[in-house]
Amino acid sequence: MSVTYVDAIRDAQEKLLRDDPRVFLYGQDISKFGGAFKATKGLAEAFPGRVLDSPISEDAMIGMAVGAAIEGMRPIVEMQFADFSSIAFNQIVNQAATHFYRTGVPVPLTVRLPSGGTPGSGPFHSQSMEALYAHYPGLVVVTPATVSDAYHMLIESVELDDPVVYCEHKFLYRWLKAPRINGDNLPIGRARITRPGKHATVVTYSAMVHEAVRAAERLKEEGSWEIEVVDLRSVKPLDIDTVLASVARTGRLLALGEAFPWGGVTAEVVARVCADGFHLLDAPPKRLNSRDTPVPYHPKLWAAHRPTPESICIALRELLNF
């Protein structure tokens, strides 16, 4: 029996509730209903009084959780969609992120953000917010791309004393499956070489890891190109050492992300490689993101809006032929 990405998130929360009495879950319709994506299904019955429905106020949700974390609890807050976390922006970046630096008291809060696009979701239910939160000191921002990482990184996030923004990709919830959750749990802050290669490096994260691997397989069949794919796993902290080591092997860099292009994770990756590893490059680095427009509703427009294996191949061919 396989384990899906959303199963792994639910199982991690079950383990955390079972092992640590300080953990509780908070969010809209997460108790009896099991949450918008059923990531908490059955947990309210198994852990009475510790899976709590919140008011429809993201600001109040995070405010309560920050207070609980200050008092020694370890709350996990589920946002129905990452987009709605902007309503709690003040609480996350001005309260949770800075509290330890102001007072010496940690805020061990984990905010689960169902992130990224799915066909038909449109501009209010498809955004990728990771770069926005990574901008602020004091926050850890993780972006698991595999079933096992979804499990292990959520557990590690809750165990950290820092506030964590846990970006789980909605497209992966039931599409991504694994035979089991394995023990290959690298720590937060360490990237993984998902696919080794020697001709070009793709640095990416979350659902785009799988699109990059598909593109790499096509280019191997097309021209025996060996494309290395680096899964960042977390964007704050950013494992630039693994990125630079990969670029040293390949000499070429494509930074790939589903988020909007302006000032995002891909821009940071390119800037850091140019600053610290310019001498390693045999071609100008490239970026590929979704288009700089609100996310469209229509599935065909959405497919044209975000990077796909086809558009990744085009970008890589330009890089390889430079």
TrEMBL record:
Domain of life: Bacteria
Cofactor entry: thiamine diphosphate
Molecular functions (GO terms): oxidoreductase activity
Alphabetically ordered keywords of this record: Oxidoreductase, Thiamine pyrophosphate
Record SMART domains: Transket_pyr
A Pfam family per the record: Transket_pyr
Annotated PANTHER family: PYRUVATE DEHYDROGENASE E1 COMPONENT BETA SUBUNIT (PTHR43257), PYRUVATE DEHYDROGENASE E1 COMPONENT SUBUNIT BETA (PTHR43257:SF2)
Protein name, per record: Alpha-ketoacid dehydrogenase subunit beta
UniProt organism field: Luteolibacter luteus
